Every structure is written in C-alpha cells, then in structure tokens.
Amino acid sequence: MDILIVKAQKIEEIGRAGRDGRLSYCHLFYDDEMYFKLRSLMYSEGVDEYAVNKFLSEVFPADKSSCGKICSLIKESASRRFDMKEEVILTVLTRLELGDVQYLHLLPQTNVTCVLNFYKTPTVSLAQKVSAIAVILKRSENRHGQHTFDLPTVANDMGVTPVELTNQLYDLKLKGEITYEMKDMAYCYRILEVPTDLLSLSADITKWLSEVESCKVRKMDAMFNAAYFAVNLCDKMNGCSSADHTSCLQRIILDYFAGIDNIDFCKKIDQSSPFLRADIKVFLQSNSHARFTPRAVARVMHGIASPAYPYTIWGKTHFWGRYTKIDFKVVMEAAKEELKKFVGKDIL
Ligand SMILES: [Zn+2]
C-alpha cells in the first residue's frame, strides 16, 4: 500500500481487507522519496493573489453593463496565461457561482470559436434575410472568405444564448448555405453581478485556496508522521511487535480524528539550505528572458510542472526538482527575495 495522502482514504482501503471474515494483513510500504514527491505535488495547484486578480479582471469585463452577458474563457490559453491548472480555474469559477454572492452562472463548456464559410446565396443577400449572419459579418474577421468569430460575442449582440445561435447555424448548414467548424473549448458563464471590489474578492479567494492547500499538506504530514513513527520510533511496547504496528497506528489515527495533533515525530522537511539563494540567483540569471513569480520559481525547484512552465521545456534545467526536500514555502520566500534583487524593484 502506498503512503496515502489522506488518512480517511487509508482507512477506507484497509477496510477492504477482511470483509470475507478471514484474517488479513495490511502491508504499508514506506519510502522517504515518495513522501517528498507527494508533498511537493500538494503545491501544484496554488495560485498567487496577483494571478487571481488578473484572472478576475478577465472574468468580469471592465464595462459595468456586462450584467446578463454571456462570457467565455478558452480553457487551454487561459490556463497558460494565468498559469492555473484547468481544474483550479473551474474551482474558482464555481466559487464565484456558489459563494456568498452569486456573481455568475456557469453554463455548459463548449467550443466558442467558429470558422464559417458561405456557399449558396451571396453573403450580403443572406445577411439581409438572416439577422444572425448580419451580426456575424460585423463581428468576424474575414480571411480569404473564411469568417472567424467568437460565438458568445455574436450571441450577446443578438440577445440569444450560444446554444440558440448554434441551432440557427446548424439550420443554415442543413440548407447548404454555410459550412462551419467550432474550436477552442471554453468555460462559459453568464454574469449576474459584477464585483465592486475586485481586490478584496481576489484576496478572499486566494486565502481560501491557500487554506485548501495547507489542509492537504497537513493531512499528508500527519499520514507520513504516523508511518514514520511506526517504522522508526515505535518502542514495540504497547501491542506492537517487529513488523506489526497495528496498535500504534490505530492510536495515532484515532488521535488524528479526535483532533489531537501529535507533534511532528520527524522533521524531515528542511526549512533552509545554504545553497538555495545562490541557486535561485543563477537560475534567474540564466533564464532572464522569462518573467517569473516566486511560485513559478519554487515550482521549478520542486520539479512541479504547471501550465505556463511545462516539464517538456523546464524539466531540462538542472535545477528542476533539486529542492524537493526544502519546504515549498521556504523556497518561495527565497525566490521572492532573489526576484526583488533581480528585478531591482519591488514588483510584488
Ligand atoms: Zn508500533
């Protein structure tokens, strides 16, 4: 059995054994490296406040008349632009829908970029007969007779939903008037209320995301501590013997669920390294073309890929994953200090 991330999950898996009433044994394979790797991964979804702010400014267009409008965010490009995993984007959008204030209403994900060609009727006369076509002509980019447009934008202009517009296009296609292709899968939503204070909303969301993150890390540490105790520290007195640590694990697990925080038995995660700052400095100097955030630097040092810093490119740097044993937050702080010096001014 792997060292599992969540104790509840572990108990669930242990529970599978012995259901037939026969005696069964659970073997826990324990490995430091696995722990470091998993602990690093807990940090793969975090987002900085300024990125959340940038994200929210794009979710809510600047003009105040955007209430009721349908907007979209193309998944792949947004994920890269904000360096946020697609799941995280969806999490934040869901929070905007289900939080204290309902800022938006999420619609089904759909392709939003339409590339359209005209066939039978001359374009201008078709536009006179079909209002959708008139709007499309106004809102599209024409390249060699191929019209490219954003479906929600045209739908907003017409006062219909993207689905209604798609149905109209489909009818025209059946009549042989047009052919079209849809691309760019996007999150779609209708704006219900534009937040008055984007900065404080960004702060709230960032705080919430970071609580989720530290909660995951704490669970990971608790699980690791229990395993570490059983393997290395148990005095084999209270019911434990050689490889059987049912008693002490049970005790630690029950404590955990009772809210008793067993102090860390192990201080495996280092809180500093003499070479960290110097390595970050060299890394920044040799990648001066890129604009980093402290989190992006820390991810590279921890060997965590992200949408803007994929493994295929950044995995090649020899700093990749070099500091998995140093606490992520410590690496991030060091990166922040080095970035300040590097940029020469406090950009953060
Ligand atoms: Zn034990």
UniProtKB/TrEMBL annotation:
**What InterPro entries does the database record attribute to this sequence?**
P-loop_NTPase
> What name has this protein been given in UniProt?
Uncharacterized protein
Name the Gene Ontology molecular function terms of this record.
3'-5' DNA helicase activity; four-way junction helicase activity
Similarity comment: Belongs to the helicase family. RecQ subfamily.
Q: Which residues form a coiled coil?
A: none
Which Gene Ontology cellular component terms are annotated?
Answer: chromosome; cytoplasm; nucleus
Give a GO biological-process term.
double-strand break repair via homologous recombination
